[in-house]
């Protein structure tokens, strides 16, 4: 069990370095299955993004001109209903209140992000597949 413990400790350090907030590990043992869920409460900033990591245009509320739709949870933002599909919206798209403009996946559940106003998409602040924190601005509507 001690090697599994050191694996968990090493994975936790890697998670911290890469900004990953959750990880599930499991190991089959003679007496049964051992599972470990690791959750870090805050994401650490990384000096350089690892290969394959999708970055977003992070803006503060003061830098945003218009109405920002924000992520209601920590997860992964998707701009289309499935890989290879047409995106929900593009810059310049007209949206009505209630239209789905993105999805945020959290705990294997896809949560729709719906516009709460009528308007035109001015800016898309996240890349498809980008990790988002709670209250991260996703789309700006005017």
What's this entry about, in short?
This protein is mainly β.
Q: Helix and strand layout, with pairings?
A:
Elements: H1 2-18, E1 22-29, E2 32-39, E3 67-70, E4 75-78, E5 94-95, E6 100-106, E7 109-114, E8 119-124, E9 131-132, E10 137-141
Antiparallel strand pairs: 1-2, 3-10, 4-6, 4-9, 5-8, 6-7, 8-10
What does this entry look like structurally?
It is a single chain. The chain is 12% helix and 37% strand. The chain is mainly β. It has a four-stranded antiparallel sheet with strand order 3-10-8-5, with no helix packed on it. It has a four-stranded antiparallel sheet with strand order 7-6-4-9, with no helix packed on it. The chain starts with a helix and ends with a strand.
Distance between the termini: 56 Å
Reading the helices and strands in chain order gives HEEEEEEEEEE
Q: Which percent range describes the beta-strand content?
A: 35-45%
Based on CA atoms alone, the radius of gyration comes out at 18 Å
Structural class: mainly beta
Please report the number of helical segments: 1
Shape: elongated
Which structural traits does this protein have?
four-stranded antiparallel sheet; 142 residues; mainly beta
């Amino acid at each position: 069990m001690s090697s599994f413990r050191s694996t968990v400790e090493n994975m936790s350090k890697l998670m911290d370095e890469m900004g990953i907030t959750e990880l599930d590990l499991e190991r089959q043992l003679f007496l049964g299955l051992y599972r470990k869920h690791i959750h870090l409460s805050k994401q650490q900033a990384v000096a350089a993004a690892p290969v394959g990591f999708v970055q977003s245009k992070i803006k503060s509320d003061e830098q945003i001109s218009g109405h920002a739709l924000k992520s209601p949870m920590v997860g992964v933002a998707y701009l289309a209903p499935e890989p290879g599909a047409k995106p929900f919206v593009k810059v310049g798209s007209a949206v009505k209140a209630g239209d789905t403009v993105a999805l945020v996946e959290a705990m294997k559940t896809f949560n729709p992000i719906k516009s709460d106003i009528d308007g035109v998409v001015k800016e898309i602040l996240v890349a498809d597949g980008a990790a988002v924190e709670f209250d991260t601005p996703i789309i700006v509507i005017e």
